[in-house]
From TrEMBL, chain A:
Pfam families: DUF2112 (PF09885). InterPro entries: Methan_mark_5. NCBIfam families: methan_mark_5. It comes from the Archaea. This is Uncharacterized conserved protein UCP018781, methanogenesis.
TrEMBL record, chain B:
Pfam families: BcrAD_BadFG. It comes from Candidatus Syntropharchaeum caldarium. It comes from the Archaea. The lineage of its organism: Archaea, Methanobacteriati, Methanobacteriota, Stenosarchaea group, Methanomicrobia. Its cofactor is [4Fe-4S] cluster. This is Methanogenesis marker protein 15.
Length: 146, 410
């Protein structure tokens, strides 16, 4: 079993596929859930605090908008944790998204740069393409077992 | 809360910037309930098509959809707060276009703000207070003509100003440096009454604004106590005869400065300096003192000089003055030094502040420094905009107060 980071990081469909194939899906929901459940007073409902933004400063300059740093700070631990990754490019927002284009581009870049086994597939806009995507993802996840 | 003001928060990035908590806290203290216009994810693409601008960031497209959904049931909210991250280019475009859209399609007051991770509570508070004023005192702010006899007092951080108006004309003024807040206000009132040849009993209504507004308002029993954002905007637009359409008000004060963007004399964004004396009237006062001239003469002196002849190493009030003193020591003329000082303040305000707001023509310059002609010319040169200096620029806040409070006159 490997820790597989999915991108978009909140895609329930991708997370489900990864779990079904016996791997652990590394997803944003877990990180967000932690932020919601942790007892913090600063910033409900998502307790993004200064530490999250500081964490991103290791990668991004202070010139970056705070929302980009906040998102990257939240995602960094997930990228660190990943042993493999699946990126669905140009995904429809309903499939999962990060909401911020700059944070999206940067996190995708970080995943690609990490050097772990990574599958990059285009977002399917029809049923046939969706079947191909599922097949590609399944093959990739199986290859990780070996 | 029965009388709570419902403000639609249409934003991108506030939770991930860690500022949403502070925003909720400040809103609650201001008696504001923040609401989030509901949008189905499936409807975002259609809303973006209708709006005509498709952002690369899904969060900004969601903002557009939320803005459009406000129109579906406009009675649900009293005003709109538009927020995006500071320095986000795409966010700035979307925020500005949504502002224009809402101002075109609705009568809702809109306030915009760019958020940073260390968001200043004061900056949020004054915007939310202004939004609340725009909602709760809408009828007052619609007033474009002063009637009866009214008084406006502006208790500023450096100076206290008072005007008396009668039938849409300023008939008396009083001005003096602020020392003791209430004492200075009373003296300014006496000066204005003397100038107008009137007694206090003849004044129909009094408004107080400025940083000392609450204490002065209580002391003199004012009919209206209101924050300076809306009052200065009304006063500047009235004096410049620009009460319809868009404008920017530039108020370079003795200790701080403001740039306000207006739509029909109502502010929708502003930026406020105050951390650096080099970007305030204080720098010009120090320069005038060093040149041995009165501050009132500095502007005309600057018009005869050439700022490019002086090398300024810093905008700082300490090191900048050092540059001017060095230039004098090397034989520079007083005129060139005066011009360089005006240029320095204008450049600093431009670099530190004006780039935070979307400047709209015309620019109306108010505040005491508006009387320094050299500063106006320096701003025109840097910005490439014509700048209007209305009559009584140093009394804009007091005039705005006198104008608005005339609604209280029977």
């Amino acid at each position: 079993m490997m820790k597989v980071l999915i991108y978009p990081p909140n895609s329930l469909i991708l997370a489900d596929l990864v779990e079904r194939m016996g791997h652990e899906a590394v997803v944003l929901m877990k990180q967000i859930a932690k932020k919601v459940r942790d007892p913090e007073l600063d910033s409900p409902p998502i307790n993004i605090v200064e530490e999250d933004l500081k964490r991103a400063l290791k990668y991004l300059s202070v010139e970056e908008p705070s929302g980009v740093r906040g998102r990257v700070g939240l995602m960094i631990p997930l990228v660190d944790e990943a042993e493999a990754a699946i990126i669905v490019e140009d995904a429809d927002p309903s499939f999962g998204c990060m909401a911020c284009a700059a944070a999206n581009d940067y996190i995708e870049y970080m995943i690609r740069s990490k050097g772990v086994p990574t599958l990059i597939v285009p977002y399917p806009y029809d049923e046939d393409a969706a079947k191909i995507l599922v097949q590609n993802v399944t093959d990739f996840l199986r290859s990780l077992e070996s | 809360m029965a009388n709570e003001t419902r403000i639609a928060q249409i934003s991108c990035g506030t939770e991930y910037s860690g500022v949403q908590g502070k925003l909720n806290e400040v809103a609650e203290r201001s008696g504001i309930k923040l609401v989030y216009p509901e949008v189905e994810l499936d409807n975002v693409a259609e809303a973006v098509r209708e709006f005509g601008y498709r952002a690369k960031s899904p969060g900004l497209n969601l903002m557009i959809a939320r803005a459009l959904s406000v129109l579906d049931d406009i009675s649900v909210v009293d005003g709109v707060l538009l927020l995006t991250c500071f320095k986000c280019a795409e966010g700035s475009i979307v925020k500005n276009e949504i502002r224009k859209f809402l101002q075109r399609e609705t009568d809702l007051p809109v306030i915009t703000y760019s958020t940073v991770d260390h968001v200043k509570e004061g900056g949020l508070m004054i915007r939310l207070e202004a939004l609340k004023t725009l909602v709760t005192r809408k009828t007052l702010l619609m007033r474009t003509k002063q009637e009866g006899i009214t008084m406006g007092v502006d208790s500023g951080s450096s100076t206290t100003k008072c005007v008396i108006m009668k039938e849409n004309e300023v008939i008396g003024t009083g001005w003096l440096p602020t020392t003791e807040v209430v004492g200075s206000a009373k003296k300014a009132i006496d000066l204005a009454l003397e100038d107008a040849g009137m007694k206090m009993s003849e004044i129909g209504a009094v408004a107080v604004t400025g940083y000392g507004r609450h204490v002065v308002g209580d002391e003199i029993g004012a009919d209206l106590v209101q924050e300076e954002l809306t009052v200065n905007s009304k006063g500047a637009a009235f004096l410049a005869d620009r009460q319809r359409g868009e404008a920017t008000v530039l108020d370079i004060g003795g200790m701080d400065n403001k740039a306000l963007t207006l739509n029909n004399a109502i502010p929708d964004d502003f930026t406020m300096g105050g951390v650096c004396a080099g970007a305030s009237g204080r720098f010009l006062e120090i320069t005038a003192r060093r040149l041995g001239v009165d501050i009132s003469e500095l502007g005309d002196l600057a018009l005869k000089g050439d700022a490019s002849k002086i090398v300024m190493d810093s905008y700082c009030s300490i090191f900048g003055i050092q540059s001017l003193v060095s230039a004098l020591g090397e034989g520079a003329s007083k005129e060139d030094v005066a011009a360089a000082a005006c240029r320095s303040v204008a450049e600093q305000v431009h670099e530190q502040q004006l780039q935070e707001v979307d400047l709209r023509e015309p620019i109306i310059e108010v505040g005491g420094t508006a009387l320094i002609e050299g500063l106006k010319v320096a701003f025109e040169d840097i910005l490439g905009f014509d700048i209007i200096i209305p009559p009584y620029p140093q009394f804009a806040g007091a005039v705005g107060g006198a104008l608005i409070v005339s609604a209280f006159v029977e």
